[in-house]
């Protein structure tokens, strides 16, 4: 039973790590797109909104991971 719980914990950490990496990758993609397409206001506004959302989500996921190890 303990081994099964450890496996599910490892899977949860793996999934949350993949989500966090994809959020960070999206952040840098949008940030670089924002720099390259500075003349397009709508794109920039949507990029900034995504950056704010991704920043909040990444903090949420890192806090959840930290709670698991407490």
Provide structural commentary:
- The chain has 70 residues and is an all-alpha fold.
- It has one domain (2-68).
- Helices cover 90% and strands 0% of the residues.
- The chain is built from two helices and no strands.
- Helix 1 (2-36) packs antiparallel against helix 2.
- The longest helix is centred in the first third of the chain and has 35 residues, at 2-36.
- The radius of gyration is 16 Å and the shape is elongated.
- The two termini are 21 Å apart.
- The relative contact order is 0.13.
Task: Provide keyphrases for this structure.
single chain; 70 residues; mainly alpha; 0% strand; elongated
Can you lay out the helices and strands and say which pair or pack?
Elements: H1 2-36, H2 41-68
Shape estimate: elongated
Please count the beta strands (DSSP E, at least 2 residues each).
Answer: 0
Distance between the termini: 21 Å
Number of helices: 2
Element-level helix/strand string: HH
How many whole angstroms does the radius of gyration measure? 16 Å
Major sheet summary line: none
The helicity comes to over 70%
Instruction: Return the average pLDDT rounded to an integer.
Output: 76
**How many domains in all?**
1
Kindly estimate the percentage of residues that lie in beta strands according to DSSP.
under 5%
**pLDDT < 50 stretches:** none
Structural class per helix/strand content? Answer: mainly alpha
